[in-house]
Amino acid sequence: MSKSRLVASAALPFALVFLTACGSPAETPKPEQPSAASPAPALTREAIEAAVFEAAPSANGQTAPVAPDPAIARAQILLDRANFSPGVIDGLGGDNTRQAIAAFEKAAGLPEDGVLDAEVFGRLTAGDAGKVLADYTITAADLAGPFIGQVPSDLQAMSKLPTVGYATPLEAFAEKFHMTEGLLRALNPGVDFGKAGQSIIVAAVAQTELAGDVARIVVDKTERSVRAYDANDRLLAFYPATIGSSARPAPSGDLSVVGVAPEPNYTYDPDRVSYDRGDRKVIVPAGPNNPVGSVWIDLSRDTYGIHGTPDPSKVGKTFSSGCVRLTNWDAEQLASKVKPGVRVVFR
Fold first, then answer.
1. Keywords for this entry (predicted)?
2. Is 22 a catalytic residue?
């Protein structure tokens, strides 16, 4: 199916079926940066809320802790709230967090090294003194689903589902609060996430609107990032991203936004795309675990877009089939402030 049904507006009130050159559920892993493990403090609500910077390997951005670190978790939540997205909040740091810190440093006029040091931590906490964790009570509506159990990896099997929903309530809560399932479990040991009325501890994040309309989007293929700017060239947000691969690179140069499709369907047509996902046309229904996630920002190059993902923990850590992949919540935030004609620069 062509993209003729994609209306040129900032948001569409219905799901769409359209062809993309990306969204392949099977991604090629990008090698992780080597790092030395180091012990992390005990992860408790009190430890995270009271966390301060300490010049230890687990907190300085150069090595990775073996368990979630309270200071890193606090910094990631504050970065998220400041619209310098670290991607998924895991308390472990890594490349996405380093890049978010570097973008924050640049905006704050600090030396840009991507290291979580005392000055960066101080700026983050001084700019936002609010609690970084919150209580949330599970409701019956939260548990209404639909939850689909194991998400198929095969497009044909996925196409037979009524919707490609969350696998479990735990996955839904983790995405709602921008966290890994592991961190959510660690903060709530022994909790039944399928029980209405149960109180859980979550990251105090919200799907806030950007401070202005997006006039320009810069996609940095080397850094694997997306930056959004307003008409005055003010940085509105930074997002880590998965951007193409050597075999199927993302575009170069200037494109523009054509429109936005929330809750898109996904079409694989072997006659129009280059990667091998079988020899038959397949239409996968909408849902957060759809190959292109919860939203599609259509670009002026046919079959290319900026979109969400079924696996936020892999953003920036794998290769895609040409498009630009963000976490669902980052893609939704960006999509809410773009309009047709917005310039998209690939560099």
1. Cell shape, Cell wall biogenesis/degradation, Lipoprotein, Peptidoglycan synthesis, Signal, Transferase
2. no
Of the residues 43, 64, 323, 338, only one is catalytic, namely: 323
CA angle 301, 306, 308 (to 5 degrees): 145
Q: Which of 224, 277, 307, 314 is catalytic?
A: 307
For residue 327, give the amino acid letter.
T
**pLDDT of res. 28:** 45
Q: Where are the domains positioned within the chain? A: 209-346
Phi, psi of 173 (to 5 degrees): -65, -40
Check if 323 is active-site.
yes
Q: Which residues contact 249 (CB under 8 A, 6 or more apart)?
A: 221, 322
Condensed to tens digits (0 to 9), the pLDDT of residues 101-154 reads 999 999 999 999 999 999 999 999 999 999 999 999 999 999 999 999 999 989
Provide the terminal-to-terminal Cα distance of the chain, rounded to the nearest Å: 30
Q: pLDDT tens-digit profile of 91-115?
A: 999 999 999 999 999 999 999 999 9
Q: 209-346 belongs to which homologous superfamily?
A: L,D-transpeptidase catalytic domain-like (2.40.440.10)
As a whole number of angstroms, the distance between CA 115 and CA 175 comes to: 26
HSE value, Cβ hemisphere, 13 Å, CA-based, for 310 = 26
